[in-house]
Every structure is written in C-alpha cells, then in structure tokens.
Amino acid sequence: MKVQKTKFGYTGTHAQSAGKIKLPPIEAWENQYKRDYAIKIIHSEFTSVCPKTGLPDFGTITVEYVPAKLCLELKSIKHYFLQYRNLGIFMENSVNRILDDVVRAIKPKKCAVTGEFTARGGIRSVIIAEYKKK
Asked: What angle do CA 59, 61, 65 make, to 5 degrees?
C-alpha cells in the first residue's frame, strides 16, 4: 500500500516513529510499602498534535499502576506530559509510548494507561494500553 503525504508532510513513517522521540526521563522514588496497592494519576489537560492534520488533540490521560519498588514522582510526570504539547503524535501512539516510559521508569507490578480524547467530528476516542509483570 502506498502511503500518501498530506499537506503537513505526514507519511506512514511518522506513525512508526513514536518510540524514537526524545522525551525527558520520568523520575521515581522508593515505595515504602510491600503490600499491593493501586495509584491512579489523572492528567486532565493533556494535549498533543495530530501529525496528519496538524490539529490539536485534547484529552485526559490516566495512569493507574501497582508499584513494585518505585513510585512515580508527580512533578516529573507533569513535566513529561508537557513535552507532548506541540508534539506531532497519534493518540494511540502517545498512550502506548506513555505506558512504555512509565514501565521503563518504575517497573510496576502492573500498569494501565488510558487516554480519553475530546470528540472531533462527532468521534470520541478512548485508548487503553496495559502491562502486567511476568
């Protein structure tokens, strides 16, 4: 299948480049408890840019995880999310990239990242990516 370029210069290669985008590392702190418990972080002002249309994507990103040895540092994750503001990335790719980066940073027992994006053209997208430690 031939991929056509849009007026914004988008090609299929852009969709595959989410893992190559340089983002700041996510910081962590040591978990004080050995029992299982869940942490839910809700970022209701997430924004990025659709690489195909150049239009902004607005949404809520929820990171829910069961920590192992480390917990996410909130100021760090806030600064991490801000890096997406002007970034051309598909909603699906941003949710999966966030999951990859969170797992890399804290190696949780399990984690789910949900992106609930504002409707555009009558279509609302909810993307869920999950990880469970083997």
From this structure: 170
Does residue 66 carry a pLDDT above 50? yes
3-state DSSP of 48-94? EECCCCCCEEEEEEEEEEECCCEEECHHHHHHHHHCCCCCECCHHHH
CATH class of the domain comprising 26-132: alpha beta
Q: Can you tell me the distance from the alpha carbon of 16 to that of 133, in angstroms, rounded to the nearest whole number?
A: 25
Per-residue pLDDT at 20: 73
Contact (Cβ atoms closer than 8 angstroms) between residue 110 and residue 59: no
pTM: 0.87
98 contacts 123 by C-beta, under 8 angstroms: no
What is the C-alpha separation between 84 and 75, in angstroms, rounded?
15
Residues noted as catalytic: 50, 57
Q: What order do you get walking across the sheet with 110-120 strand by strand?
A: 39-49, 56-66, 110-120, 123-132
